[in-house]
């Protein structure tokens, strides 16, 4: 198992559309395990393959309090949705930025598990929010795309500033 590097906004590779998974082989199983490890190591509640530069329709989730309920969705599709909710979202690919996004309240999802077995599931609340957030990643979409262009520009500037400051900290460490 290994933790993988997470791409960060505005990396253009985050805009790639994922292709369906076709073989449910050992390689897929290893990718699933690495994604679960990467998500848990980063304290995320979800991770889409797009974020680790693998452009296949695969996402993992763990929205449990104890962080001991790993879920895997291969080739997920929303079959129905109802209502709406607004949630403060964050993203491992947009670190340190939080913003409110409106999404469906209840969704019904059809997907395959890591062995290719088809299942259907109903989700609500944060579970539904996270699934929709991850399925957006698989289409090359980020939660900051729901913000106004002005706000998105502010997000870019804030990320640039955060990155410059962390580089300065590293540089100071090497002098001292
Ligand atoms: O860890 C995450 N938290 C989160 C909080 C509110 C709404 C969505 C999310 S998903 C995010 C992990 C991530 O970036 N997944 O793509
Ligand atoms: Ni995300």
Descriptive report:
By secondary structure, the protein is of the alpha+beta class. It has one domain: Alpha-Beta Complex (Peptide Deformylase). Helix content is 32%, strand content 24%. The chain is built from three helices and seven strands. The strands form two sheets. The protein has a five-stranded antiparallel sheet. The protein has a two-stranded antiparallel ribbon with strand order 4-5. A hairpin with a 5-residue loop joins strand 6 and strand 7. The radius of gyration is 17 Å and the shape is globular. The structure holds ligand GNR and nickel (II) ion.
Quick take:
The protein has helices at residues 26-41, 125-138, 149-175, and strands spanning 46-48, 58-61, 71-82, 85-89, 99-103, 106-112, 118-124. By secondary structure, it is α+β, with helices and mostly antiparallel strands.
């Amino acid at each position: 198992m290994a933790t993988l590097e997470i791409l960060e906004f505005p990396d253009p590779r985050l805009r790639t559309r994922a292709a369906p998974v076709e073989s449910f082989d050992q390689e897929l199983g290893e990718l699933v395990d690495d994604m679960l490890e990467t998500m848990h190591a980063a304290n995320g509640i979800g991770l889409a393959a797009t974020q680790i530069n693998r452009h296949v329709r695969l996402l993992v989730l763990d929205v449990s309090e104890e962080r001991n309920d790993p879920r895997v969705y291969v080739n997920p599709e929303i079959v129905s949705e109802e209502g709406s909710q607004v949630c403060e979202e964050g993203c491992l690919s947009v670190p340190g930025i939080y913003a409110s996004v409106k999404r469906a309240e209840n969704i019904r999802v059809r997907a395959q598990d890591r062995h290719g077995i088809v299942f259907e599931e109903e989700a609500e609340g944060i579970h539904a929010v996270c699934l929709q957030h991850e399925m957006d990643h698989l289409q090359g979409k980020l939660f900051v795309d729901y913000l106004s262009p002005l706000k998105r520009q502010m997000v870019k500037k804030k990320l640039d500033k955060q990155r410059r400051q962390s580089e300065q900290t590293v540089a100071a460490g090497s002098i001292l």
